[in-house]
Amino acid sequence: IAPLVNQAHQTFATQMTQPYDYRIQQLKGIENLVQENWDELSSAIANDLGQGPMYAEAFELSSVVSRARYSQSNLRKWMETKRVPTPFPVNLNIPIHSELVPNPRGVA
C-alpha cells in the first residue's frame, strides 16, 4: 500500500487533481467502476460482511453510485470562489474584500 500512497502524494503535488475536468472524470470513473463490476462487488461484500447480496446492493453499492452522481452535480458549485466578510480590524479604512477559495488539501 505504501507505494500507492506515495504515488498518490506525487500526483497530488503536480496539481493535476485541481481542475474541474479532472475531478469530474474521476467521479465518473468511480460510478462506472461500480456499475461495470456490480455483481463481483456485490458478491465480495456479501462474503466479507456475511450479508446477502441484496444488502450489498441496497446499502453499499447504490450509495456509492448515488454519492458519485450527487458530487458530479454539485462539484462546480463546491469549487466556486466565495466572497466572505473581511475580518475586523482589517476592513476599517481600506477598501478590500476577502475570498474563500476551496482547494483540495492533500491525500488522505
Record the SSE blueprint.
Blueprint: H1 2-13, H2 20-36, H3 38-49, H4 53-79, E1 82-84, E2 98-100
Antiparallel strand pairs: 1-2
Helix pairs in contact: 2-4, 3-4
Anisotropy-based shape: elongated
Determine the mean pLDDT: 88
Strand content: 5-15%
Largest sheet: 2 strands, antiparallel
Rounded to the nearest angstrom, the radius of gyration is: 20 Å
Q: Give me the count of strands.
A: 2
Helix content: 55-70%
- Strand order, main sheet: write it out: 1-2
Order of helices and strands: HHHHEE
Structural class: mainly alpha
| Termini Cα gap | 13 Å
**Count of helix runs:** 4
Low-confidence parts: none
Q: How does this structure look, described?
A:
The structure is a single chain. By secondary structure, the chain is mostly helical. Helix 2 packs antiparallel against helix 4 (53-79) and helix 3 crosses helix 4. The model has no long low-confidence stretch (mean pLDDT 88). It has helices at residues 2-13, 20-36, 38-49, 53-79, and strands at residues 82-84, 98-100. It has four helices and two strands. Strands 1-2 form a two-stranded antiparallel sheet.
Keywords:
elongated, mainly alpha, 4 helices, 63% helix
Question: How would you sum up this structure in a few lines?
Answer:
The protein has 108 residues and is mostly helical. It contains 4 helices and 2 strands.
